[in-house]
Write a structure and sequence with these properties.
single chain, 325 residues, alpha/beta, Spore Coat Polysaccharide Biosynthesis Protein SpsA, Chain A, 2 domains, seven-stranded mixed beta sheet, binds uridine-5'-diphosphate, binds magnesium ion
Length: 325
C-alpha cells in the first residue's frame, strides 16, 4: 500500500430524471469539493432523462468550469452511466454518489482521507438507512448476506453508491448489467485493499426511486456471472471438466457393471433404468468436458481481444522509464 499524490478528485454522478434535486445537489457538491482542499471536477451523467434535467445541467455547466456534463443518447441504466463517468474522469480519486441527495456529498472528506491511508476502494456503509423496510432494506439485507458469502469480499453494504476509488483500479475493470454494486468484488480479482466507513444517509426529498423490487432478480443473476468470472473465468476446464469427469466416471462404472451382468451373468439389461442413467451420465460428462475446452479457447480469445492481462500491476519502480530492453 502506497500513499497517494495529491492530484485531484472526480465526482461521478448518474442522473435519471432528478430535476428536483439538481440545484441542491450542485450546492452541496461544490461545498464538499472546496472543503477537500484539492482540485476537483464534477462529472454529471445524464442517463437519458426525459424531464428538465438536461437543460438544468447545461446551465450549471455553463456557470462553473469544474462541472462536466455527459449526456447519454438514451436511458442505459445506472451502471452504464457510472461507466461513462469513469471513462471521462481525470482525477486520481473517483467518488461516486447518487443524484437524489440520499448520499451526503460532505462524506467525501471521510472517504478521501481513508483512501489516502493506502486503500484502493473505500465503500460507504449506510448505517442508518432512510428507506422503506419491505421493498428496500429487507431485500438489500438478504442481498448483502448472499453477496458477501459468494464473493468473499466482506462489506456490510454493497448497494451504497457512495464510494471512493483510485482511478487506476477502475481502469482495469469492465462493467456490464447491474454490476456497479459488484465493483469491489470484481476489483478483488486484481488484488485491492478495500475499506468500509459509515456514511450519512437521507430520505429522498425530490422525485422518486427508479428501482422496483424486480431489480433483486437481476442483481442475483449478475451475482452468478460475477461469481463465475471471479472463480473460473481463467480456468473454465477446471470447473466444467470436474463435473464432466464425475458424471462421465459414474456413468462409465455403471456401464461396466451392466456389461459384466450382460456378458458374464447372462442377465437381460434391456429393461434396466440404470442403463439409461449410465448413458445419460456419460453423454453429459462428455459434453461438460467439451464445454470446458471450448471455454478455454474463448478465455484466450477474450484476453487477446480486450488486451486483458492475467496479472495486474500496482506500480513499477524503474529509474529509467522507457529505457527497458
Ligand atoms: N439512475 C440512473 N439511471 C437509471 C436509474 C437510476 O442514472 O436508469 C440514477 C438515479 O438518477 C440516481 C441513482 O441512479 O442518481 C440511484 O437511483 P435511485 O435513487 O432511484 O435508486 P434507490 O436509491 O432508490 O435504490
Ligand atoms: Mg436513491
Amino acid at each position: 500500500m502506497s500513499t497517494l499524490p495529491q492530484t485531484g478528485v472526480s465526482f461521478v454522478i448518474p442522473i435519471y430524471n432528478e430535476e428536483g434535486s439538481l440545484p441542491e445537489l450542485r450546492r452541496q457538491l461544490v461545498a464538499a469539493g472546496e472543503k477537500l482542499g484539492e482540485t476537483f471536477e464534477i462529472i454529471l451523467i445524464d442517463d437519458g432523462s426525459t424531464d428538465g434535467s438536461f437543460p438544468a445541467l447545461k446551465k450549471m455547466q455553463a456557470e462553473d468550469p469544474r462541472i462536466k456534463v455527459i449526456r447519454l443518447r438514451k436511458n442505459f441504466g445506472q451502471t452504464a452511466a457510472l461507466s461513462a463517468g469513469f471513462d471521462y474522469a481525470r482525477g486520481e480519486i473517483v467518488i461516486t454518489l447518487d443524484a437524489d441527495l440520499q448520499n451526503d456529498p460532505a462524506d467525501a472528506a471521510i472517504l478521501v482521507s481513508k483512501l489516502r491511508e493506502g486503500y484502493d476502494i473505500v465503500s460507504g456503509w449506510r448505517q442508518k438507512r432512510k428507506d422503506k423496510f419491505l421493498t428496500k432494506r429487507l431485500p438489500s439485507k438478504m442481498a448483502n448476506w448472499l453477496i458477501s458469502r459468494i464473493t468473499r469480499v466482506r462489506l456490510r453494504d454493497y448497494g451504497c453508491t457512495l464510494k471512493a476509488y483510485r482511478r487506476d483500479v477502475l481502469r482495469s475493470i469492465k462493467l456490464y448489467g447491474e454490476m456497479h454494486r459488484f465493483i469491489p468484488a470484481i476489483a478483488s480479482q486484481i488484488g485491492v485493499a478495500i475499506a468500509e466507513v459509515p456514511v450519512n444517509h437521507r430520505p429522498r426529498l425530490y422525485g422518486e426511486s427508479k428501482y422496483k423490487l424486480t431489480k433483486s432478480v437481476r442483481v442475483f443473476l449478475d451475482l452468478l456471472t460475477v461469481k463465475f468470472l471471479l472463480s473460473y473465468s481463467t480456468r473454465p476446464l477446471q470447473i466444467f471438466g470436474l463435473f464432466g469427469l464425475i458424471s462421465g466416471g459414474v456413468g462409465g462404472v455403471l456401464a461396466l457393471v451392466l456389461s459384466y451382468q450382460r456378458l458374464f451373468l447372462k442377465q437381460s439389461i434391456a429393461n434396466r433404468p440404470l442403463l439409461l442413467l449410465a448413458i445419460l451420465l456419460m453423454v453429459i460428462g462428455f459434453q461438460f468436458v467439451s464445454m470446458g475446452l471450448l471455454g478455454e479457447i474463448m478465455v484466450r480469445t477474450y484476453h487477446e481481444a480486450v488486451e486483458k492481462h492475467i496479472y495486474a500491476v500496482r506500480e513499477v519502480l524503474d529509474s529509467e522509464p522507457g529505457a527497458a530492453l
